[in-house]
Amino acid sequence: METPKKLTNEKKTGEEQKIDRKQALVKAGYIAFSAATMMMLFSNPAKADPGTSGTPGSLP
């Protein structure tokens, strides 16, 4: 899958560039994926940082 060059529309001489349906769905997919990832990380922060342990001062 190819990644988009920019997530924002570039402006051409004062007018917004139109995007087609396929590009809009790809952008929406990237946004949904990043939102789901952030929700998973914030739901359980202990799993997001595997370097921490229960005892302070211990090395991993």
Can you give a write-up of this model?
- This protein has helices spanning 21-43, 45-48, and strands at 11-12, 15-16.
- It has a two-stranded antiparallel sheet.
- A hairpin with a 2-residue loop joins strand 1 and strand 2.
- It is mainly alpha-helical and 60 residues long.
- The model has no long low-confidence stretch (mean pLDDT 75).
- The longest helix is centred in the middle third of the chain and has 23 residues, at 21-43.
- It has a domain at 18-45.
How many angstroms separate the termini? 36 Å
Beta strands, count: 2
The number of helical runs is 2
Overall 3D geometry?
rod-shaped
Which range best describes the helical content: under 10%, 10-25%, 25-40%, 40-55%, 55-70% or over 70%?
Answer: 40-55%
Specify the biggest β-sheet: 2 strands, antiparallel
- Helix and strand pattern: EEHH
Please list the strands of the largest sheet in the order they lie side by side.
1-2
Proportion of residues in extended strands: 5-15%
In angstroms, what is the radius of gyration? 19 Å
List low-pLDDT spans: none
What structural category arises from helix and sheet content?
mainly alpha
Instruction: Give the averaged pLDDT, no decimals.
Output: 75
Question: Which SSEs are present, and which pair or pack?
Answer:
Elements: E1 11-12, E2 15-16, H1 21-43, H2 45-48
Antiparallel strand pairs: 1-2
